[in-house]
Amino acid sequence: MRSFTQHDESTRFNLLMAATVIPLLAIDIVLERLVHLNAGEDLRALAHVSVGSFGLWLLIAAYCYCRWRGMTKLEDISQLLAWAMLVVPAISFLIPSAARSPYPLVDSALARIDAGMYFHTVTVVHLVSQFPRLRLALAIAYNLLPLLILASLLLPPLWGRAVDSRRYVLAVIIAAVMTAALFALWPAAGPWTVEGFAPTRDQAVVVDSLALLKSGRPLPEGVKSAVVAFPSFHVVLAVLSVFAVWKVRWARWFVFTVGMLVCVSTITTGWHYAIDVIGGLAVTYLAQATANLMLRPEPSPAAPAMSREGAEISAAAC
Tens digit of pLDDT for each residue in 128-145? Predict the structure, then answer.
């Protein structure tokens, strides 16, 4: 059975998420009109997938039933998955909206910062290309992020650490808002644009998408909206996943290894500058610290009473 304190924690998380996600969805609708993304159909599709989907309502029903029956772990999992389905559309339109900002691309500045640290992404890309198996392994690692996200939502509540997954979900929202703001101020495409190596097909598409977004024109159907260079959101999600799963002892080193490979692969695949990774780590720290603060345990009401009783006993002994 779940204690009253745990019920209070779950309820507080629900209220906090409602106060965060609902305004974000409203902001998305306003931004879609203000910056003329012409993404109304995509926004409605995402809203249908999340808010109007059978899966979401099934998860909500499962959460209510498990809470009533005292099935703690299933309650926590259904709660987290339901909120995750709402978080996706809440943050999905932040990046393309940020890409509409009037600020020019700063790839040259980011490359100069890397050079000041005696680092060049192109050198790493060319080095790794000499080892085809390593290159393939790191390319696969770059795409393992969904696995880390799923582990962060499922493993902690299964091992009685649902609070770590709740902090993860909240930290992802905070980090997404911070990343979008930084991307709006310092937009960039990627190192291949200034360091002289051939982009992949996906990287070339990102350049075209950013150019369309900067021009104010709508994106053709099926074209990627944008991918953030600075800071690296891949790094943010990977490291937040490590934080979320760290107290699950049997899984911590597997998730840590995969998470670090994801971070390294952002460079070896040519997607990011070194400063992007550093920026991603800084955003991760701030987002995690803020989530910890917002979801810190409430002080037990019994503690002050015990302290006063102890003080009275001590005074009587004196």
Answer: 999 999 999 999 999 999
Q: What are the pLDDT digits (tens) for 62-101? A: 889 888 888 889 999 999 999 998 888 788 778 888 888 8
φ/ψ of residue 103, rounded to 5: -75, 140
Query: Is the distance from CB of 50 to CB of 88 less than 8 angstroms?
Result: yes
Q: What b/e sequence results for 88-114 when a residue is b if at least 16 CB atoms lie within 10 Å of its CB, and e otherwise?
A: ebbbbbbbbbbbbbeeebbbebbbebb
Q: Where along the chain do its domains lie? A: 4-317
In 70-144, which ranges are continuous DSSP H helix? 72-92, 94-99, 107-116, 121-129, 132-142
Q: Could you tell me the two tokens for 220?
A: 């053709």
- Specify the residue for token string 């260079």: 229
CB neighbour list of residue 203: distance below 8 Å, 6 or more residues apart? 189, 190, 192, 270, 271
Q: Where are the beta strands (DSSP E) in 198-238?
A: none
- Which of 271-275, 293-297, 298-302 is least confident? 298-302
Question: Is the CB of residue 16 less than 8 Å from the CB of residue 70?
Answer: no
> Which DSSP letter does residue 187 get?
-
Q: Other CB atoms closer than 10 Å to residue 197's CB: what's the count?
A: 16
Question: Which residue is listed with tokens 């070194």?
Answer: 274
**Residue found under tokens 């996600």:** 21
Encode pLDDT of 139-184 as tens digits. Answer: 999 999 999 999 999 999 999 899 999 999 999 999 999 999 999 9
3-state secondary structure of 161: coil
